[in-house]
Amino acid sequence: MSTDSTPRVLSIQSHVVHGYVGNKSAVFPLQVLGFEVDAINTVQFSTHTGYKHIKGTILKNEEMAELIEGLALNEVDYYTHFLTGYSRSPDSLKQIASIITKLKQKNPNLIYVCDPVMGDNGKMYVPDEVLPVYRDILVPLADILTPNQFEAEQITGLTMNDLDGALKIIDALHNKGVKTVVLSSTDLGDEQNMIGIASNKDSCYKIVIPKFGATFTGTGDLFAALFMAWSHKTNKNLKLTLEKTIATLQYIVKDTFDKARGLLFVWLLR
Ligand SMILES: Nc1ncnc2c1ncn2[C@@H]1O[C@H](COP(=O)(O)OP(=O)(O)O)[C@@H](O)[C@H]1O
Ligand SMILES: Cc1ncc(COP(=O)(O)O)c(C=O)c1O
């Protein structure tokens, strides 16, 4: 049992050599926000899978099991939070369910944050077989679930065309056992804005997010990490957590957009 009040998270997500997704998106911001972060990389790819060539390795189940065993043998497996993201195999996701059980034996108050990374804009970017494992095994275990619109629709089998549809999907996710449901982005806004929604059954908040004219990768992983950290730092104040998460993301997304536009301008002048 840890007597230290520092929040400690085990983050099981992807790693990329070049770019920022998965643990590359999550670890540093979590450390800046006061978390001790232990990271396990489900994959080690050269880049995220939106690139033309995908090179690298996928962590084997027995390798994940060995890492978890090492943490337990050295008695450093006490965590306050558990965060999971990108994983390509149903078996590794089932293994994550058994890890939750182990970590909850060490800390019954463990908070499990599940980012059900499956796809976006109407298509999967991981094998379809992961969907039933998220839907039937991991989502019911989540204290906080952070799907984007596509992922929320896949998990519930419902579609959202308006706010009422989104609220129905949120209710369906609560009914699966999720305490806090956060739709990181939906297309329910208009051309200029996307909508984020956070609900913990007692209260529900909607936030209008000005869109930048670009598609970003890694933002969902950053969103999940920031939401988890701000939920802890605000003592689960849902409204403040959503506001601080989006404010941080908008600063980072704007900075990225401005820098990319600057680089494009220089390139066009060559
Ligand atoms: N084009 C964009 N313009 C402004 N903010 C964006 C944009 N794309 C993503 N974001 C920010 O990133 C957050 C998560 O984005 P989202 O697309 O839902 O993640 P993912 O699809 O990667 O899970 C959004 O809540 C928003 O704050
Ligand atoms: C290796 C890897 N990890 C994570 C992600 C998830 O990124 P996002 O945060 O945009 O959902 C992707 C998306 O393509 C990916 O290829």
UniProtKB/TrEMBL annotation:
InterPro entries: PM/HMP-P_kinase-1, PyrdxlKinase, Ribokinase-like
EC identifiers of the protein: 2.7.1.35
Family the entry assigns: Belongs to the pyridoxine kinase family.
Domain Pyridoxamine kinase/Phosphomethylpyrimidine kinase: 95-256
Top-rank taxon, per record: Eukaryota
GO molecular function term, any single one: ATP binding
CDD domains: pyridoxal_pyridoxamine_kinase
Record-linked Gene3D superfamilies: 3.40.1190.20
Name listed for the protein in its UniProt record: Pyridoxal kinase
Catalytic reaction list: pyridoxamine + ATP = pyridoxamine 5'-phosphate + ADP + H(+); pyridoxine + ATP = pyridoxine 5'-phosphate + ADP + H(+); pyridoxal + ATP = pyridoxal 5'-phosphate + ADP + H(+)
Pfam families associated with the record: Phos_pyr_kin
Lineage: Eukaryota, Metazoa, Ecdysozoa, Arthropoda, Hexapoda
Entry keyword set: ATP-binding, Kinase, Nucleotide-binding, Transferase
Gene Ontology CC terms, in alphabetical order: cytosol
